[in-house]
Amino acid sequence: MTESRVSAPVTEVALPWAADGLSGTPEEGLRAGLTAPAPVRHRRIPSLFGYDETGSHLFEEITRLPEYYPPRAERRLLTEHGDDLVGLAHPAELVDLGAGSALKSEILLAAMDRHGLARAYTGVDVSPEPMRQAAGRIRRRWPGARVTAVHGDFLAALEWLDRAERVVHSAATRGDGNGSDGRLLALLGNTLGNLSEPEQTRFLRAVRAGCAPNDHLLICVDLNEPVEVVRRAYAAGYTGPRPVRRMFALNTLLHLNRRYGADFDADAFEPELTYDVARREVRGGLRSLRRQRVTLPGLGLAVDLDAGELLLHDVIRKFTVDDLVRAVGEHGMRCRRHWVEEEFGYGAFLFQPDC
Questions:
Q1: CB atoms < 10 A from the CB of 291, how many?
Q2: For the sheet containing 281-288, what is the strand order?
Q3: What are the pLDDT tens digits along the chain (355 aa)?
Q4: Is-contact 17 28, C-beta < 8 A?
Q5: How many C-beta neighbours within 10 Å does residue 131 have?
Q6: What are the φ/ψ torsions at residue 287 (nearest 5 degrees)?
Q7: In angstroms, what CA-CA distances link 311 with 5, 28, 44, 113?
Q8: What is the rounded distance in angstroms from the CA atom of residue 231 to the CA atom of residue 88?
Q9: CA–CA separation, 125 and 153 (whole Å)
Q10: Cα(146)–Cα(188) distance, rounded to whole angstroms?
Q11: How far is residue 283's CA from residue 11's CA, in Å, rounded to a whole number?
Q12: How far apart are CA 304 and CA 34, in angstroms?
């Protein structure tokens, strides 16, 4: 771990990727995904490899597409119910897992500020530059708050918060007589839906292990069911003068080229999208246009792909209210309250550890 001051008092922390005991490090997950036998299931690139600096900027463009409702629905939900949420959780610190630009997180910080609670912000993201920019912006808006920018996956960050920095964070957010000594861990943007089932299990287990009794977990997820609305939302950006979804998909391969010296030929893949209604999964894939061998020297790996074979790079699962409450409840956390945005059926769920 390295730590430095980028523009005091913003603290910047760089963490190595965590070995999670289920799928290993993200690199081990990438190796396993690329070498999975094609007849058994599609090969898969873990979604976090889409979020280098270029991918993060492209995804921000995707969030502004008019057809793509989740960010708009989530902003509306947090704006309308942020004060209720903060009133229930009473947090002194916001821990923003997978922060990105952190624009929606500022809605929560503003609600905390109205309650006199905006004393600390910790943002976590795998892409350093967007996180660094967001931390600086938040520090300027709330100059009295302690702001930390953590570069790494949020599983590593949870370990860091729980082990290496728990004493520091507890001291910085210790209550002032009104019970405001807890943290609000926020997983926004339907990020839980991007995790495979083993990754989801590992995440929830790590959250529960690191939560104090007065901490809370906020999870925002997509509950939308109308098939055509979902298809339009996720198909937007594959064509047109600036096809940002297509660019985002292909950048995943280019990121692997830059990171591991791989030789993916972006022109040899066609991005595509499918929506499995029965499984409630949106799947972003890259279809190999010819038989080809791809090498990743940084991983000591060579992958043979058939013409027509699909590489999954993004799998987004949707939830029902009951399924989400049950899944999180299995890890010792109870749902205190949930809110649903009416137009698109987007949900925010506030959980607290069982005592």
A1: 12
A2: 43-44, 310-317, 281-288, 269-276
A3: 554 444 447 899 888 765 544 446 778 889 988 987 765 567 999 888 999 999 999 999 999 999 999 999 999 999 999 999 999 999 999 999 999 889 999 999 999 999 999 999 999 998 888 899 999 999 999 999 999 999 888 778 888 887 644 555 455 444 444 445 799 999 999 999 988 888 899 899 999 988 999 999 999 999 977 899 999 999 999 999 999 999 999 999 999 999 999 999 999 999 999 999 999 999 999 999 999 999 999 999 999 999 999 999 999 999 999 999 999 999 999 999 999 998 999 999 999 998 6
A4: no
A5: 25
A6: -90, 125
A7: 40, 17, 5, 44
A8: 35
A9: 6
A10: 21
A11: 36
A12: 9
Buried-state track 144-164, b at ≥16 Cβ within 10 A, e below 16: ebbbbbbbbbbbbbbbbbbee
Structure tokens at 189: 């943007």
- Residues in Cβ contact with 264 at an 8 Å cutoff, skipping those fewer than 6 apart: 253, 254, 256, 257, 294
Task: Label the pairing between strands 333-341 and 310-317.
Answer: unpaired
Give the length of the chain.
355
For residue 283, the SS3 value is strand
Cα–Cα distance between 324 and 48 in angstroms, integer? 22
| Amino acid identity at 319 | F
The structure tokens listed for 56 are 């993060």
Tell me, what DSSP letter sits at residue 334?
E
Contact (CB, 8 A) for 155 and 169: no
Q: What is the DSSP letter of 226?
A: -
